[in-house]
Amino acid sequence: MQNEYLVDDGRTMRQRMLDGDDYIADDPDLAVANRRAIELSFRFARTWPIDPAAGRAILADLLGALGSDTEVRPPLRVDYGSHISIGARTFINYNLTALDVARISIGDDVQIGPNVQLLTPTHPVAPEPRRAKIEGAKPITIGDNVWIGGGAIILPGVTVGENSVIGAGAVVTRDVPANVVVAGNPARMVRNLNESSQAGPA
Fold it and tell me: How far out from the chain centre does Cα 201 lie?
């Protein structure tokens, strides 16, 4: 490893990446894994509309874990796929971008609208480390029974608690507790689902 911004401690770039430490984004081994993910994503997109069972088999090969009775509609865009786990009975609509430089965990019974982005990568603000391809990442966790509206963006390091709702187009920059509705940019709580007076459609 030759990079003035990193100390060689014997770990691979993938290990550094998954440990949440800075790594070199254009590492050759990571490039191979990325190309594999791109190939499987395109195979999934071509196969699923014709043969959903065969498409699911490709998706299971791409992802780290795929729960039963879960549906993912292509296209699906990932960095590696293998760092993504999706629980049971989850529905993911068209055009999810899930950049799994860190781990992405999606729970059971989750609903994700079209054009949602789950973004784990981080980049240096200083120009020189960024030019040197230094990158970092923080994991994203989506709890059980969460609903994410179309076009929402979940930023690095965010955890969304169970049963919560993310409004369409929201930009989520920090953790969301369980049983709330958040909306806006940056997303803020607009409803507490624990309050019986607030019951009803979002």
Answer: 26
